[in-house]
Amino acid sequence: MTSLKRFFVLPVLTVLAVFYSTAQATSVSVAAHNATVPELDLNIYLTVERGLATFWFSNDSTGDAVAARIYFEVGLGDLGFQDPVIVGGSGVSFGTSFPGQARFPMGI
Amino acid sequence: MNWAGEFFAIGATSPPPKHGIGVGDNLVVTFGYNSTLAALLTGLTDASGNARIAAHVLDCNGGNGCAAATVVPVPAALPLLLSALAGLFVVQRRRSLTFLTSLVGNMTPIIDDPSNTSLLAGCKPTSSALAFV
Fold first, then answer.
1. pLDDT at B116
2. Is the confidence at residue A16, as pLDDT, over 90?
3. DSSP track, A60-103
4. B50 or A94, which is more confident?
5. What is the tally of structural domains in chain B?
6. B20-50: pLDDT as tens digits
7. In chain B, at which end, N or C, are there fewer CB atoms within 10 A of the end residue's CB?
8. Whose CA is closest to B54, among B15, B10, B17?
9. Does B101 have pLDDT greater than 60?
């Protein structure tokens, strides 16, 4: 029985250790700050792997909420972020320039 | 919430409701970053606990107009603390069970017939291990 445990447990621990050493991930939920958004369920999945920090924004809302802009506060620059890359999903198109629109988060 | 301006900002190309992150959609933003996830999580809030990421959300109602709101990350400290405590509880419980299992596994049965208690006459517990049985 003991050898059987070692046979299964050790490989699993090894895989978990390798996975943890190469990729770290967690998720962060967001909440409305200055208004009520019914049925809003926006989540951010964070991954740090091989010199890249990935912010995966996922809209799991059951209503019609649409995230139109995303802001990273100036203090995040102190973390050493470099070379941002935006990858939009199907029907999602984001850019760093939106002329005629206020670039500051509303209500903050 | 104290917002000091943005280090990086992105917006949906016109028209925003159509090209924003709608229900079921997702968007990925990557940065070059040479630190840990723990440091990143810490950096998501400033010293006062204010969020450093914000999203502008339009709550559209059947095409009859959209209400705007700003959304910020839920403070991560409480969930992280609770998950850490839960992890410690599980580890501690497993250690206790392992200790008990090893004790029981190493004990030699002295009574083959449990109904025959005459062998116990006059015996006194001499080991604290008996307390676990």
1. 55
2. no
3. --SS-EEEEEEEEEGGGGGGT-EEEEEEE-TT--EES--TTS--
4. A94
5. 2
6. 999 999 999 999 999 999 999 889 888 888 8
7. C
8. B10
9. no
Tell whether pTM > 0.80: no
User: Would residue A5 count as lying in a domain?
Assistant: no
Across the strands, what pairs with A21? none
* A16-25, Cβ contacts within 8 angstroms, sequence gap of 24 or more: A22/A49, A22/A50, A23/A47, A23/A48, A23/A49, A24/A48, A24/A49, A24/B36, A24/B37, A24/B38, A25/B37
Q: With beta carbons under 8 A apart, name residues in chain B contacting A78.
A: 43
How many CA atoms within 13 Å lie on the side-chain side of B40? 28
* Domain-located, residue A9: no
Contact A42, B58 (CB under 8 A): no
How many beta-carbon pairs below 8 A join chains A and B?
304
In terms of residue numbers, what domain contains B43?
16-74
What is the ipTM, given to two decimal places?
A: 0.76
Put simply, whether A32 touches B (Cβ < 8 Å) is yes
